[in-house]
Write a structure and sequence with these properties.
Layout: E1 9-11, H1 25-37, E2 41-42, H2 56-68, H3 85-97, E3 103-105, H4 116-130, E4 137-141, H5 143-146, H6 152-161, E5 166-171, H7 176-186, E6 192-195, H8 201-207, E7 211-213, H9 221-229, H10 236-251, H11 255-267, H12 284-296
Parallel strand pairs: 1-2, 1-7, 3-4, 4-5, 5-6, 6-7
Helix pairs in contact: 2-3, 3-4, 4-6
């Protein structure tokens, strides 16, 4: 199994907002520190970070806040993929200059039905323009949202052209057969495959992948990272099932608002319960459903700073 410089388990870190909906750097840094203390790496500016509701400048500033706060940049895998090549380059170049462990890059997702050749040219342009041998790029395959898939053929072409740069993939297809196919095709080349949910953490590790980058690592980091660290134990299947049960609860309502509602509740800090439109907070019935279910299983977020 290839090593995982950024960690076995990473979280697409939720982004807190102030009353005026500007990013709240103080809360952001504290949440990142809490995740790191639970052995979870930081895939900031991911889907569950509301990244595509953030400007390039806002993302650059939040990244700089983490560096100023002394966060270990090798545990960072910021999302830097945009529809625009210059925006992707600007984010990627700055992240690499700070010594991040890698960057996670969406395909350009506005135009649908684009060719493999077009996607290949996009990634090549970004890599060439960044022009830094330290770049380690992780492809972000999330067809349910982006509707622009990253297929085996594209991965093969990029690895052939940039074997030292193209480091891995996050597979958020939700299709285990696809994750297995990527591991089988490229895992022995050192290509690092992350599942997009902890539901697939144990199967991914057993198949030769490196871990998961999961939304619910924001709220259940210790249990997920613990399985990632001891997945060969006799109780691994039972622990995987326990993770799935918590995941079921969070998926029973809209995921991003649920993550923020739980963080607000367990930190006793209502400031966490803000989202940028078009996303909105859980309504009262959804919040009650979530918190009642979490109480039923004695769920907690120990050590969370309010």
């Amino acid at each position: 199994m290839p090593n995982a410089p950024c960690g076995t388990v990473l979280s697409p870190v939720i982004t807190p907002f102030r009353d005026d909906l500007s990013p709240d750097a103080v809360r952001f840094v504290e949440h990142c520190r809490w995740l790191l203390s639970n052995d979870v790496g930081l895939a900031i500016f991911g889907t569950n970070s509301e990244a595509n509701s953030l400007s390039v400048q806002e993302r650059l500033e939040l990244l700089d806040h983490l560096v100023t706060a002394g966060v270990d940049t090798t545990r960072l895998m910021p999302g830097t993929g945009c529809c625009s090549i210059p925006d992707s380059v600007a984010l990627t170049r700055h992240a690499v200059s700070l010594g991040v462990g890698g960057v996670l890059m969406l395909p350009p997702f506005y135009y649908k039905g684009v060719s493999e050749e077009g996607l290949f040219r996009f990634y090549c342009e970004v890599i060439e323009r960044v022009g830094d041998e330290r770049l380690r790029l992780y492809l972000y395959h999330i067809p349910p949202v982006a509707q622009v898939p990253i297929g085996l053929g594209l991965i093969e072409r990029l690895l052939k052209r940039y074997p030292e740069v193209v480091a891995g993939i996050k597979d958020s297809s939700g299709d285990w057969a696809n994750t297995q196919a990527v591991i089988d095709a490229f895992g022995t080349q050192g290509f690092r495959v992350y599942a997009g949910s902890e539901r697939f953490l144990l199967p991914t590790l057993r198949a030769g992948g490196v871990g998961c980058i999961s939304a619910t690592a924001n709220v259940n980091p210790r249990a997920i990272s613990a399985l990632g660290g001891s997945w060969q134990g006799d109780d691994a299947d039972a622990r995987q099932q326990a993770l799935n049960e918590i995941r079921d609860i969070f998926e029973s309502v809209p995921m991003i608002p649920a993550l923020k509602a739980a963080t607000a509740h367990f930190s006793d800090d209502s400031g966490w319960d803000r989202l940028r439109p078009p996303l909105v907070s859980l309504d009262e019935s959804q919040r009650d459903k979530l918190l009642t279910a979490l109480k039923r299983v004695d769920f907690a977020m120990p050590g969370l700073v309010g």
